[in-house]
């Protein structure tokens, strides 16, 4: 995805955000100061060939930056290493999948899962892990039930604006409108209202909120579902949204992990339907540095906020990596 020089300049503001903002555990507070600082970005996007170095919220120094062509040439000349992996990097698969580690009592979680699964028949295992029905019932997707042990099926329902296929429901403001408020409090209130409505309709998992697409492609057909192309702002608002939804007894499903930026012709069927000779799904290939600094940031905030689940992306290359 090509970015004009001014966009690169605007994105240069991101590394200078205060580190404390990366944590979603901070009490809700106004984003107005951040808004003032990031308000420089639109001006840069309009054509100022500069980078922004921010030492304080109220101070900024503009300095010329190298051209896009120069950046590409310099990066292409760099040897392969862990810091720069190139535009078509794919991490090698690891088998078997590594065990979960880090914060939390993983040993207890694995023991509970092992105890539950060991008591199931093969057919019950297949039924539990096989999704059923796209729009075949009242939900956009269901998991199988296990009546023998009283394990119910799960009803999953779209979407990021509320319930998609039902009557007497609310069409909530889009994520991009929520971001325009710069208010964690409103994001939380919206999440609570969405969760309550889903619960009342019998939905177990709300397929949202969205931080992928992040929205860096101006013509992205689903940019409105997310909050902002700025990963910090998206992370700051997706966290209270998730917490609001789940406070009502409904599981949030943060999507689409990751780099689901290409909406048009992301599937071969659409390409053929329009008469184009495109025989492979378009793939979003992103270098490791960009992946971590931009696209992964809000998903990390979603995990810290306790999102119950996630949905993988629909672009071919990264779908293989993220759905595994």
Automatic annotation (TrEMBL):
Transmembrane segments: none
Residue ranges the record marks as coiled coil: none
Domain Glycoside hydrolase family 3 N-terminal: 149-306
Pathway: Glycan metabolism; cellulose degradation
Key words of the record: Carbohydrate metabolism, Glycoprotein, Glycosidase, Hydrolase, Polysaccharide degradation
Uppermost EC category: hydrolase
Catalytic activity: Hydrolysis of terminal, non-reducing beta-D-glucosyl residues with release of beta-D-glucose
Record InterPro entries: Cellulose_deg_GH3, GH, Glyco_hydro_3_N, Glyco_hydro_3_N_sf
Pfam families according to UniProt: Glyco_hydro_3
GO terms for biological process, alphabetical: glucan catabolic process
Annotated GO MF terms: beta-glucosidase activity
Enzyme Commission numbers on file: 3.2.1.21
Family membership noted in the UniProt record: Belongs to the glycosyl hydrolase 3 family.
Full protein name: beta-glucosidase
Organism per entry: Cladophialophora carrionii
């Amino acid at each position: 995805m090509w970015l004009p020089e001014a966009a690169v300049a605007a994105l240069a503001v991101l590394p200078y955000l205060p580190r404390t903002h990366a944590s979603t555990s901070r009490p809700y507070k106004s984003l107005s100061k951040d808004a003032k600082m990031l308000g420089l970005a639109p001006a840069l996007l309009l054509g100022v060939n500069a980078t922004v170095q921010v030492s304080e919220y109220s101070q900024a120094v503009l300095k010329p930056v190298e051209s896009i062509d120069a950046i590409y040439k310099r990066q292409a000349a760099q040897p392969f290493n862990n810091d720069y992996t190139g535009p078509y990097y794919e991490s090698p698969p690891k088998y078997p999948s590594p065990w979960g580690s880090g914060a939390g009592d993983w040993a207890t979680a694995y023991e509970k899962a092992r105890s539950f699964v060991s008591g199931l028949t093969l057919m019950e295992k297949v039924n539990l892990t096989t999704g059923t029905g796209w729009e075949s019932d009242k939900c956009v997707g269901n998991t199988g039930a296990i009546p023998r042990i009283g394990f119910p099926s799960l009803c999953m329902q779209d979407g990021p604006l509320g319930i998609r296929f039902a009557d007497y429901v609310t069409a909530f403001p889009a994520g991009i409108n929520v971001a325009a408020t710069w208010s964690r409090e409103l994001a939380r209130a919206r999440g609570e209202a969405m969760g309550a409505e889903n619960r009342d309709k019998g939905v177990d998992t709300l397929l949202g909120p969205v931080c992928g697409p992040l929205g860096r492609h101006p013509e992205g057909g689903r940019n409105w579902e997310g909050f902002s192309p700025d990963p910090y702002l998206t992370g700051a608002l997706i966290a209270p949204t998730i917490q609001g939804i789940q406070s009502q007894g409904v599981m949030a499903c943060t999507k689409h992990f990751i780099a689901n930026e290409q909406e048009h012709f992301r599937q071969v069927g659409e390409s053929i339907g329009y008469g184009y000779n495109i025989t492979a799904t378009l793939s979003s290939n992103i270098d490791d540095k960009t992946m971590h600094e931009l696209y992964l940031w809000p998903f990390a905030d979603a995990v810290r906020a306790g999102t119950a689940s996630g949905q993988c992306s629909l672009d071919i290359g990264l779908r293989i990596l993220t759905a595994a």
